[in-house]
Design goal:
This protein is of the alpha+beta class and 457 residues long. 35% of the residues lie in helices and 20% in strands. The strands form three sheets. Strands 7, 8, 9, 10, 11, 12, 15, 16 and 17 form a nine-stranded mixed sheet that branches. Strands 1, 2, 3, 4, 5 and 6 form a six-stranded mixed sheet that branches. The longest helix is centred in the middle third of the chain and has 21 residues.
């Protein structure tokens, strides 16, 4: 299934190149993948010749339970799309021919990303990629396209994933023992891993900007150039998967958890701007912000609490939102103000808003779809932008972002805007997603409870 939403990066592969690479024996494996509700790449490793003979131009199939499981891949109740009663049927993995890329961290392997289709040929509405496509089409109806970049932090450990598992993910050795924010020495100590990730991601068709240290022990960030929102989300998913696999190959591990410990969490700041379909500037004119830009910001703010489920989808996500942590607590905007949930950056063609709410565990398709849906709501309803925050947003009386997944779930479930933007089936699906996570967490006995209660209570 080909798309014309984004210009091709010359390091991506064409269908003709894929055929040639397989015919010559340079490629013997093709990964067919999609991104699930949890933001993970899922799919199949296909023998290359089988791929050419049977999958190319046709796609493959996969069980519809892949959009109806918890993080542990358990089948769970409550999803209309998939159940024992319906027989757990298949979805179609429709290949997006513009997403063929090398997978440099695996030998002789390439990847293609997919849209999920129903038996009728329609997009599966609750598939994250379908949801983002829906908002892309909505923007296109206005004559606009959206571009975005994601800034994704992670924490590196000297332990392997297997060692981390055996230790219950406790007492791990971070790659740095102190705050290495912008430290050349600190990043240099981790550079064999960072360099490998950068070069492999470049070879996989991404435009890599830089790497830098962050505040938490062993915390780093690798930045990529902005692109159209679909390409950015696709690249984001491949990057997260590849970074973990590269770390594992070097005997290390890394995590994108929003809050892996009591220090600074992992953020995923999302920069987004609207452009005309001809790439003209929409957010800036005559040396100042346009009315459309202000309305877009107002819409993102007006929907932020109701859409937080898509920005912060896990129990752990809400541990980031702490005063004085560089993670936001207030629904507020400011110009180059990192205490606000929405920070305005740049001028002219570079004018964009930065959403600082999402963490490293966010699903990029859902988060960007939520930003687009909120911004377009603001434009379509000509919302007035509230006064900007000057100084610390932590000290204002602005509305607070949800502090628990349960609060975010309830806000999303009651949202008429969410139903209008995504449809009732999607709202029901992701409310059930949150209900499952909350139910499982409520049933768990945590380390905190054991430490406080085992002997002393």
């Amino acid at each position: 299934m080909s798309t014309t939403h984004h210009p091709r990066n010359p390091r991506m592969l064409s269908v003709e190149q894929v055929r040639e690479l397989i015919s010559s024996g340079e490629v013997d494996t093709v990964i067919v993948a999609f991104t699930d509700m949890q933001g993970r790449l899922q799919g199949k490793y296909l023998h290359a010749q089988y791929f050419v003979d049977h999958a190319l131009g046709h796609g493959v199939e996969g069980c519809n339970y892949l959009l109806a499981v918890d993080t542990d891949m358990n089948t769970v109740d409550g999803y209309a799309i998939s159940s024992w009663e319906s027989g757990y049927g298949d979805m179609q993995f429709a290949l997006d021919d513009e997403t063929f890329r090398w997978v440099p961290w695996l030998e002789r392997t390439i990847m293609v990303q997919c849209d999920l289709l129903l038996a009728t040929g329609e997009h599966v509405p609750m598939s994250p990629r379908s949801m983002l496509r829906q908002q892309i089409e909505r923007a296109a109806d206005h004559g606009w396209k959206a571009v975005a970049g994601t800034e994704l932090e992670f924490v590196v450990y000297r332990d392997t994933y297997e060692q981390a598992w055996e230790r219950g993910y406790r007492d791990l050795t971070p790659a740095n023992q102190y705050n290495v924010d912008y430290s050349i020495v600190g990043s240099g100590r981790v550079e064999p891993l960072l360099q490998r990730i950068r070069t492999d991601m470049y070879a996989a068709g991404m435009v890599v900007e830089s790497a830098k240290g962050e505040c938490n022990f062993g915390q780093h960030e690798i930045g990529f150039l902005f692109d159209d929102v679909l390409s950015t989300a696709d690249n984001h998913s491949v990057y997260k998967t590849g970074a973990k696999m590269i770390a594992s190959s070097l005997g290390q591990s890394l995590t994108f958890m929003a809050k892996p410990n009591e220090r600074e969490g992992n953020s995923c700041h999302i920069h987004l701007s609207l452009r005309g379909l001809d790439d003209s500037t929409v957010f800036w004119a005559d040396g100042q912000r346009t009315a459309i830009y202000d309305q877009f910001i107002a819409g993102v703010l007006a929907t932020m609490r109701e859409f937080t489920l898509f920005y912060a989808p896990n129990i752990n996500s809400y541990k980031r939102f702490a005063v004085g942590s560089f993670a936001p607590t207030a629904v507020a905007w400011g110009i180059d103000n990192r205490t606000c949930s929405v920070r305005l950056v740049g001028e002219g063609a570079g004018a964009r808003l930065e959403n600082r709410l999402p963490g490293g565990d966010t699903n990029p398709y859902l988060a960007v779809a939520a930003m687009l849906a909120g911004g377009l709501y603001g434009i379509e309803h000509k919302l007035e932008l509230e006064p900007m925050t000057v100084g610390s947003a932590y000290d204002t009386d602005a509305q607070h972002v949800p502090v628990t997944l349960r609060e975010a779930r309830d806000l999303f479930a009651a949202s008429d805007i969410a139903r209008e933007a995504f449809g009732q089936k999607v709202v029901d699906h992701y409310v059930n997603f949150a209900d499952i996570e909350i139910r499982d967490f409520d049933a768990a006995v945590t380390d905190w409870e054991l430490r406080r209660g085992f002997e002393r209570l």
